[in-house]
Structure formats: C-alpha cells, structure tokens
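Bumping with the actual sequence this time:
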Amino acid sequence: MFTTMFHEMSWGWVFMMTMMLLFWGGIAALVYWLVTAPGERATATATSTALAVLDERYARGDIDETEWRHRRAALDGKE
C-alpha cells in the first residue's frame, strides 16, 4: 500500500514540476518576445522606409546616381 501511494505521489510531483516549468518557460518566452520583437521590426521598417525614400528621390531626379549609391551603401551598412 505504501509503495503504491509513494509511486503515485512521485508521478504527481513529476507532472506538477513539468507543468510549472512549461508555464514559467512560456511566460519568459512571451516577455522575451515582447521586449525584443518590436525593436527588430521597427529597425527593419525604418531601413526599408529610408531606402524607399532614397529610391523615390533618385527617381524624381533630386539626387544623382553617385549620391544615390553613396547613401544606399551607408543605409545598407557597407560604408
């Protein structure tokens, strides 16, 4: 009787610990995603917007090809 009760209780603890780890791991992953994801998306959007504006200025003739290449290299991080 004692062995059966101990066996059932030990599996209960294993299950509870596993669920607790999954719960807190999920909370930690959610916090990490909320903290890091918006910054990465904002940077990517800002860069693509800047490139679009640069391409528009070149298409309108506001800047020449040399300046366009120079600024595009700077935005791509190749300068």
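The tokens above came from a reply further down the thread. The chain has one domain: 2-76.
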